[in-house]
Amino acid sequence: MTELERLTITLTPELSQTIKTAVLDGDYASASEVIREALRDWKVRRELRQEELAALKTDIEQALSEVAAGQLSEFNRERIVERARKLLAARKRAG
After folding, report:
1. Cα separation of 65 and 85, whole Å?
2. How many Å separate Cα 41 from the centre of its chain?
3. What is the pLDDT of residues 45-82, one digit of tens each?
């Protein structure tokens, strides 16, 4: 059996009620199950955001290298800003 660790958390009344409702509705057997699923989902979203940020950093480094080598004929600031805005919007929706 997996070893479990007990933690105490503090929630807003709204979040607490959401958890209680999920259990009362029969979607989950316990509040702990709700929290565990929420944390698994959070972990996946966090990993995806980190991957997206790493890819963005790689793109920026590549572009800077191309600029330094004189290989970039056009620098499209608007495209870069738009991509960053889309990543931020996706992050807000996921959060």
Report:
1. 23
2. 9
3. 999 889 988 988 888 888 888 888 887 767 677 887 88
Instruction: Tell me whether residue 38 is exposed, middle or buried, using C-beta atoms within 10 angstroms of its C-beta: 0 to 12, 13 to 18, 19 or more.
Output: middle
What is the torsional sign of CA 54, 58, 59, 64?
A: positive
How many Å separate Cα 35 from the centre of its chain? 17
Angstrom distance (rounded) from CA 68 to CA 26: 60
What pLDDT was estimated at residue 30?
97
- Per-residue pLDDT of 30-44, as tens digits, reads 999 999 999 999 999
- Give DSSP secondary structure letters for 7-75: ------HHHHHHHHHHHHTTS-SSHHHHHHHHHHHHHHHHHHHHHHHHHHHHHHHHHHHHHHTT--S--
Domain boundaries, given as residue ranges, for the chain? 13-94
